Amino acid sequence: MPNGFPELPPLNALRVFEVVARHLNFRLAAEELGVTQAAVAQQIRGLEAHLKLRLFERLPRGLALTDAGLGYSASIRSALAMIDEATRLLRPQAAHLTVSVTPTFASKWLIPRLGNFAQKHPDIDLRVLATDRLSHFSTDGVDIAVRYGKPEIGAGLNSELLMDQRIVAVASPTLFEGTRVPASFAQLQDFIMLHDAHDFWPQYLAAVFPQHAQPTAKNLRFNQTSLAIDAAVSGQGIALASLAFVSDEIVAGRLVQVFAQQLGLDKSFYLVWPRKLQQPESLGVVRRWLKQQADNS
């Protein structure tokens, strides 16, 4: 059978040539390829002998491409990229899906559950975009988002309730060593109140202690709910947080619920995703998994 590519040099020599042409240095090329400098130099000499022309000028410091080598390197790099792309397309690719959530939602609710998702759905490459900024689905490459608020969702978007918001007061059990858990508004004033950007304390106090006086407790303020929760875990004071964000810490004994009362809010967590005629199958899988996790939390 006749050779279909009679002028084709050894493919390994072409791969070595592409690396050397990028680095213009035998040592750096050898490091990338995981071989010795002598092996790299031998491949280049063999290729030049096969082509019967010089591809590199040997300089006191490094290398320079000859005119022939410069044009050849561009063509070889393009050809190798085509081979790489053809090989990649042969392999089944994981479905990519990006979910946008707030940093607190990510760290206190989603991340502890991601191992479960990866185990159940190894074929889906789930990417988490944690930001307080309202993500744009098209420009940010977001497929689905968890948004907090009321169900007024913009045109062209689908929404589904993920879970209601229930606020509880929590603290480390170490905070009450040698003292008692506060049972009244006056006793609460002996402890530091940990605030986040939502600042639910005025609403919570009004609901739990309707006739309370002006608070005199010391305050620490954080811009992230997750930071207030972490401060509570470390025994810094009493924090208000969504029960969904602290339930794992309560079960583990790192936090205790200080008061039995929960503050219900008219804002909830919603799943939001763009309306499209054809949705990727992975979107439905992730939506169902998020709903299942919320129902079980």
UniProtKB/TrEMBL annotation:
> What domain of life does the native source organism fall in?
Bacteria
Protein name in the entry: Transcriptional regulator GcvA
User: What gene is this protein translated from?
Assistant: gcvA
